[in-house]
Amino acid sequence: MICGTIMLLFIEYVSKSKSGEKFMIINQDCVGCAQCVAFCEQDAIKVKGRAYIMEACIDCGFCAAYCPMKAIEVPV
User: 2-57, pLDDT tens digit by residue?
Assistant: First the structure.
């Protein structure tokens, strides 16, 4: 059941990324836990106190799906 929930979160974030905009960290929510870094296959996230998404981001959405603080969102 947990796997299914994670997959639903992933699909939700991927569909949001189709706008062509990069995911961004909402800094006040990010606690710098680096969970997002562990799931980024592009090595596009760096943590220096808080997480920052770099240009190498391909909008796959794994970081957003796995962020325990839900600190990664697509800009409006």
Answer: 554 444 444 444 444 445 556 677 778 899 999 999 999 999 999 988 898 888 98
Domain total of the chain: 1
Q: How many CB atoms lie within 10 A of CB 37?
A: 16
CB contact set of 20 (below 8 Å; sequence gap of 6+) = none
Confidence (pTM): 0.64
CATH of the domain at 59: 3.30.70.20
Cα distance between residue 10 and residue 2, in whole Å: 12
Distance between CA atoms of 19 and 14, rounded to whole angstroms?
10
Q: Is 12 helix (H, G, I), strand (E, B) or coil?
A: helix
Residue 2 vs residues 6, 31, 70, 76: alpha-carbon distances, Å: 6, 23, 17, 29
Q: How much is the mean pLDDT over the chain?
A: 76
